[in-house]
Amino acid sequence: MNPTNSSPPAASPAASSAPGSLRRIAARVTLMALPLIVVAALFELVVSLLGIAPPPTNPLIVWNPRRDAELSSGNGEFRENARWLWEPRPGAIVVGAAINDDGYRGPALPRERGGRLRIATLGDSTTYGIGVPEAESWSRVLETVLRGQGYDVEIANFGCVGFTAVQGLALYRGRVREFRPDVVIAAFGCVNEQFPTLPALTDTAKLRTLSSPWHRVRVVLRRLDAFRWLEAKVSTPIVPPSGDVDPSVAVPRVSVDEYRAALTELAAAVRDDGGALVLVSPPRRPDGESESPRTLDYTHAIESLAPALGVGFADVHSVLRQLVAEEFQTPTPTLDQARRSTYFADPWHPSPKGHRAYAVCVGQTLLEKGLLRKSP
To answer: Against a cut of 0.70, is the pTM above it?
Structure first.
């Protein structure tokens, strides 16, 4: 048989009618939806003309109302990130230097590993180095000191203003582990965890909300005046906590139990990745501690958690306390003396002198744990 003269097989009736059936179904759905679309468009037009819709806002208070305006501006120091709430904005100028393209302060390290021991630091505004050049932050001072002692190290500073241990865990899982650090140093629990938050909106709840499909749909729908007007009619407004919230009943951003759980999960993740974890008990000035006594709950938690997890522990809290006492030549400095300490810039943040003491303490812990190696 000559194949060129053969006829193609006939299409089955079902196959030939399928595209036509789909088109008819789509046409019916469109006709049924058309009235609803027209009504919705008219409703949107009326609400817009009357000007009765609330102004467009983020449906979730991510950080706080003032900071959220910065997150959405696109030109602030920080930007929103659904995986860990917020992060430094690449290109933002901070104390004379730009945030690098990977979203952290200091020189950008390649994800590919070289021969140096790689250390990643996680933490809050103190680790970030708020108010000081990045070269004077304890992370960078630690790198400088260790290299001066003959240790071949490189440090990536992933600290971020306002961060808690819950955010740090999410950041490690979502970005830091990509850099395959040999050592991870986590410094949380100084102040942010104990801050009062909105009812039932802890950091864990906010992260869960941001990752939900409904939240993403809601963000899009809130561009419509009609949706915002309807939402305002059927929902209860969320009122941010004021400065006079009773700390004894306020819900903290991260409870002590959540704090322990986050650091425990971080230790497991770092171990599974082949790295070593060092926990830091961050310092604070005595007057800050006196005004926010809940901070001590997190200090006590980390003091017991580090040995239970079998990880390194740098007690910077105690070291800075001792240095302040020596500064005033008294075992127990008064609150007025503490406010004048040259080791602190304010109740929560070390001065450059304090950052250096911080770095020395952490370096000593790394040495004692056998986590350093000399340059070849």
So the answer is: yes
Structure tokens, 214: 């409904």
**Can you list the alpha helix ranges (DSSP code H) found in the chain?**
13-50, 65-73, 125-128, 138-148, 165-174, 203-210, 213-221, 225-234, 256-272, 286-291, 295-309, 316-327, 335-339, 352-368
Quick one: 192 and 312 in the same domain? yes
Give the domain range for residue 255: 65-198+244-368
- Neighbour tally for 332: CB within 10 Å: 10
Specify if 329 maps to a domain.
Answer: yes
What is the domain count for the chain? 2
Rg over alpha carbons for the chain, rounded to the nearest Å, is: 28
The pLDDT tens digits for 51-79 are 787 776 666 889 988 898 899 888 999 99
Reduced 3-state DSSP string for 57-85? CCCCCCCCHHHHHHHHHCCCCEEEECCCE
Tens of pLDDT, residues 262-273: 999 999 999 999
